[in-house]
Design a protein that fits this description.
mainly alpha; globular; disordered C terminus
């Protein structure tokens, strides 16, 4: 068994372009100790850029297959890279960092006109996570509104369509009244890319006002748009789409669209879906689709349990209302002295019930901590002083 490699072995391998980088060393980037991170950060820019780009892409792919790995430290180092591609990769490695101290960094990158459109777009995309946190009341409201304002400004003023669209997608999480008209406008443009972004944002909105528009695009000729409409139907759990999506699963050949169909149906749940998934699983020779179907079946069980629970709650509430109505009805006098009968009082009862890095890579972590605004913290529901 090979002895564990040191940070010096890792840096030596990164510098040596004559040899392929050993895949086993990729895991050493995960959950890197502070001392190792500081040493890597101090030598990062001296590593050939082609190697830096390749390593970051390898780490992104590795994380997609094993999200128990933690590549936040190398992501933070990459944010201070001079190379735009490396910066974009660094942002990608930090998408799930859940660190509000990253917010001012992402805001700065978004507003920096000297950055490439790809860096600005990646920053806009990363800010969507924090819009979502704000909607869940897990982020300081002032920071939440600052992010929304920055995204609205980028949507209105950034010269790049890509940045504008990423800003709109991140605003999909927002309940700000300005957002819905922007989504309607974007969906009406003669552009598949804008329609795709609008649908993506609609799915994030958790707002069923978008149901008619989403259903209308389920048969779009462009598979990218069609896939986003299907994804939005799943995000919104549109039961009205179930039968159509099941039929499409029998004839859809595009792999991307098929994967969205399977995912969306697992989110919607209901009759006929489990049987369809099991039939497909029994006959598929595509390992990737088989894995997707197995995951979808697990999710479907959860979805159906949630739906059953909600229906049971509705039934209990209905029975409770009926019991209350019976009790009140039983208490009505058959006739009163003024000659009002049961029907009059029953009518009254019925009427009543109808109602990103500056210098993240300062070689000293103390300098880093001092450069970030302490107000960028997650909300603690038990600590009123943070509000």
């Amino acid at each position: 068994m090979d002895a564990p490699s040191s940070i010096h072995d890792l840096i030596k391998a990164l510098m040596d372009l004559e040899k392929p980088f050993p895949a086993r060393l990729l895991y050493q980037f995960s959950d890197m100790p502070s001392e190792d991170r500081q040493l890597l950060a101090s030598t990062w820019q001296s590593i050939p850029v082609v190697r830096r780009r390749a390593i970051l892409q390898d780490l992104i792919e590795l994380f997609e297959h094993d999200n128990l790995l933690m590549f936040e430290e190398i992501g933070r180092i990459a944010l201070g890279d001079y190379d735009a591609d490396c910066q974009v990769s660094g942002i990608s490695l930090l998408l799930e960092a859940e660190d509000p101290k990253l917010v001012p960094v992402f805001l700065k990158l978004l507003a920096d006109g000297d950055k490439t459109e790809f860096v600005r777009a990646a920053a806009a995309n990363a800010l969507g996570f924090y819009v979502h946190l704000g909607e869940l009341e897990e982020l300081n409201p002032d920071i939440h509104h600052e992010i929304e304002d920055a995204l609205l400004l980028a949507y209105a003023q950034d010269p790049s369509d890509l940045v504008q669209r990423r800003a709109l997608e991140s605003l999909g999480y927002s309940s700000r009244e300005e957002v819905a008209p922007l989504l309607r406008f974007a969906s009406a443009l003669d552009s598949d890319e804008w329609l795709e972004s609008a649908l993506f944002a609609m799915g994030r909105s958790a707002d069923n006002q978008w149901e008619p528009l989403v259903l209308e695009q389920l048969d779009h000729e462009n598979p990218e748009v069609r896939g986003q409409a299907i994804h939005a139907a799943g995000e919104l759990a549109l039961s009205a789409a179930r039968a159509r999506l099941l039929r499409e699963l029998d004839r859809e050949e595009d792999e991307y669209v098929r994967s969205e169909l399977i995912w969306a149906l697992s989110q919607i749940g209901g009759e006929g879906i489990e049987e369809k998934f099991e039939q497909l699983l029994a006959k598929t020779d595509n390992d990737e689709e088989a894995n997707l179907l197995e995951e979808a079946l697990d999710m479907l069980n959860f979805t159906n349990d949630v739906v059953d629970f909600e229906l049971m709650e509705v039934g209990l509430d209905h029975d409770h209302d009926l019991d209350n109505e019976d009790d009140e009805y039983d208490e009505q006098p058959e006739d009163d002295e003024d000659g009002n009968d049961e029907d009059d009082e029953y009518d009254e009862l019925k009427a009543f019930n109808d109602e990103e890095w500056l210098r993240y890579i300062d070689e000293d972590e103390d300098d880093l901590d001092g450069s970030l605004d302490d107000s960028y913290t997650l909300e603690d529901p038990d600590d009123e002083e943070d509000l």
